[in-house]
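Progress note, sequence design subtask.
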């Protein structure tokens, strides 16, 4: 029924799920949120579905390109860790999800806001303390240094 009438994207970060895309009716939008909220361990749902026609392939490609530009500019910016930030663009609106300090979040929002093609920025960033940020960075570093076991048959 929904195959050609709806387009869904689900992005999660830290047990919170962002739903974007287009649906034919408000009831479908509400049902999608109910389904996602019922998933074990989901702690929050951001339902940004739009009731309207499904976006075209070229519009989605353009959104992917904008997301790539925001990500690469974020790496160049170097004022925040891109490891703790997810970027999603839908219909020219760029959504930022992650765990950042207030200073880092402001820098990330500024990068997105000043990227060509971005029409609007929606910050879903959870603000954390600098000490929590250091703790996350240390746990990320130790995870990256974890030994890899190579088993050969």
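Output:
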């Amino acid at each position: 029924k929904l195959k050609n009438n709806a387009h869904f994207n689900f992005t999660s970060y830290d047990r919170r799920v962002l739903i974007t895309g287009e649906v034919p009716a408000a009831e479908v939008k509400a049902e999608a949120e109910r389904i996602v909220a019922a998933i074990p361990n989901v702690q929050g749902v951001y339902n940004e579905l739009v009731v309207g026609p499904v976006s075209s392939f070229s519009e989605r490609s353009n959104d992917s390109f904008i997301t790539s530009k925001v990500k690469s500019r974020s790496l160049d910016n170097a004022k925040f860790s891109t490891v703790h930030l997810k970027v999603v663009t839908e219909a020219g609106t760029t959504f930022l999800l992650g765990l950042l300090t207030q200073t880092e979040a402001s820098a990330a929002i500024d990068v997105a806001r000043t990227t060509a093609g971005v029409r609007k920025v929606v910050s879903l960033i959870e603000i954390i303390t600098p000490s929590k940020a250091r703790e996350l960075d240390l746990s990320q570093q130790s995870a990256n240094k974890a030994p890899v076991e190579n088993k050969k048959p």
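The two ends are 46 Å apart (CA to CA). Work on this subtask will continue into the next period as scheduled.
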